[in-house]
């Protein structure tokens, strides 16, 4: 009995010692240094993106479907949910000017976080994107009805509304 208790403590001690680093100064540190204050960001690469070009001759129904798709397929889930639900509610009733503003808003900025921060009013919206659609998006983002917005809507609604 005593020998099994000693053996159990010995095995537990060996296992715990194996998990600890032998020398505490040798522990490797993993992390992203891009936001560190001492980082001069000299290693960042500027990737040139093609400029946004408005599709002036695009038929309205094609434009709405394209904008719906682009609202759903974002670089981050938060914007996918936010913009797809916004598009579901407003896209079919937008005027040509509002469609143009929305197209520019979701396609010209190269960083999805910018759109998210502007919509949530965490950062000021640049004048070029400020307008009627951005005001609608900011109000939609406030979610005054406290809807559960956990997922993008199904696509079937688009065809049902057109019938």
Topology:
Layout: H1 2-19, H2 60-72, H3 77-90, H4 96-107, H5 112-119, H6 132-141, H7 156-162
Strand count: 0
The Rg value, from CA coordinates, equals: 26 Å
Count of DSSP helices?
7
Order of helices and strands: HHHHHHH
Biggest sheet descriptor: none
The outline comes out as: extended
Q: Could you explain the architecture of this structure?
A:
The chain is mainly alpha-helical and 163 residues long. Helices cover 50% and strands 0% of the residues. The protein is built from 7 helices and no strands. α2 runs antiparallel to α3 (77-90). The chain is extended, with a radius of gyration of 26 Å. Residues 17-34 have low confidence and may be disordered.
Structural key phrases:
163 residues, mainly alpha, 7 helices
The gist of it:
With about 160 residues, the chain is mainly alpha-helical.
